[in-house]
Every structure is written in C-alpha cells, then in structure tokens.
Design goal:
Four Helix Bundle (Hemerythrin (Met), subunit A), 108 residues, 4 helices, mainly alpha, globular
Amino acid sequence: MSLETTRTEPRRDRPTAQEARRRLDHARGTRLIQLRALTGGGQTTDDHLTSAQRHSIEQVLKEIDAAITRVEDGTYGACLGCAKPVPAERLEILPYTRHCVTCQRRAT
C-alpha cells in the first residue's frame, strides 16, 4: 500500500490576473470603509492622529491603484527593484506590494 497522495489541483506559484484583481479590489474596499469611518459620515476632525491615519490609508489606496495598473499591463508580481517574481505568499498577504522582501529591506 502506497502512502503517496495525489493532488486534485496543481499548486500555482503565481496568482492569476483575476485572483490578483479580486484581492486588490477587496483591499481597496476595506481601506475605503476605514477612510469613511475616520471621517465620521462626512465630518472631518482635525486632530493629528486622525489626520495621520487618513494620510496612511490614502497612501495605501494609491499603492492599490498602482497595483491594479500593473495587473492590467501585465507587470503585476514582478519586483520593481530587481525584476524577479515576488513570492506568491507575499502577494497573498500584501497584494499591492511593489517589492520582494530583499528589495523592500533595502528601500527602508
């Protein structure tokens, strides 16, 4: 009797464009909800913490929009620093990332 198991689906190392777009759309929707919550239904507060949070969310939204552009032009998943593929695990956790971990560490 063999202990070998068969896989029903082949493992893909790269998300498809459709999967990437779905993850990015979800991340975008989540950030928009956070931004609306910070503005309190149209009323903006001027405190430093709220302003910093709003700025941070707006920056992430720009990153998400840039990632959507990369999906559309076929460059999504390639590190902008070294041009090597960004690991699928990193893209799953941070779908709008522009860099592999090595290049991100160099940038910060």
